[in-house]
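Shape matters. Shown next:

___
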Amino acid sequence: RTLLLTSFVNTAGATVSLLGGDNIRSFKYLPDPGAVGASHGNDIPEIRFADILLAHAEALNELNGPSQAAIDLINRVRTRAGVSILALVDFPSKDLLRDHILKERGWEFFSEGHRRLDLLRMNKFISNAVARGKNAKPHHVLFPIPQEVMDSDPLLEQNAGY
């Protein structure tokens, strides 16, 4: 079974290669070429059922540590993806299962725009960036407030570090 797609057929019936050229991208859904500002005609999923299942598994783990219920939720996602299922015995601690759920979310939601928030929520954003050779600093957990917003309200203070 192919788990990483290298091409797809678009709505016009044309095969689009994802290997090189101008098709290297870090997002799954192409932007609408007719977009005006943030308005576009694309139907981009805000949440998928897999997100609900993995969020539930994460919550169960945070509340009670590893449980068969949490593993079963993860396995529903893995079964749908056609990959092997997990066993509770492989996750003897809350930390190990938390780390695995983060990996699982990375695989399941690759290029869907969830990774930054997942890393922030699990307090791994900076350490993950540093491990990849990035010059990440603690203030990078926040974005800078756009200048036009700052200009519109003199009482606003820019986030520290920007």
Q: What stands out?
A: The CA atoms of residues 18 and 25 lie 8 Å apart. The first strand starts at residue 7 and ends at 9. The chain has a mean pLDDT of 90.
